[in-house]
Amino acid sequence: MAKATTIKVKLNSTADTGFYYVTKKNSRTMTEKLTKKKYDPIAKKHVEFKEGKIK
């Protein structure tokens, strides 16, 4: 069976609030770690979220 092209990743907040988003990414075209600036409702501001593994 072939390996899936899209994988689920966990975007962890860099504000250390424990908040995270779950999103998909194409592992063949985006080989580097994903970083996005999104809203953290616990910190009540936009912060950078970095990719981590779903456990």
UniProtKB/TrEMBL annotation:
**Family annotation (PROSITE patterns):** RIBOSOMAL_L33
According to the UniProt entry, where is the signal peptide? none
What are the alphabetically sorted keywords of the record?
Ribonucleoprotein, Ribosomal protein
A Pfam family reported for this protein in Swiss-Prot or TrEMBL: Ribosomal_L33
Q: InterPro entries, per this entry?
A: Ribosomal_bL33, Ribosomal_bL33_CS, Ribosomal_bL33_sf, Ribosomal_zn-bd
Say yes or no: keyword Nuclease present.
no
Q: A cellular component term (GO) from this record?
A: ribosome
Entry-linked HAMAP family = Ribosomal_bL33 (MF_00294)
UniProt similarity note: Belongs to the bacterial ribosomal protein bL33 family.
**Protein name (database record):** Large ribosomal subunit protein bL33
Organism the protein comes from: Pseudahrensia aquimaris
From the broadest rank down, the organism's phylogenetic lineage runs: Bacteria, Pseudomonadati, Pseudomonadota, Alphaproteobacteria, Hyphomicrobiales
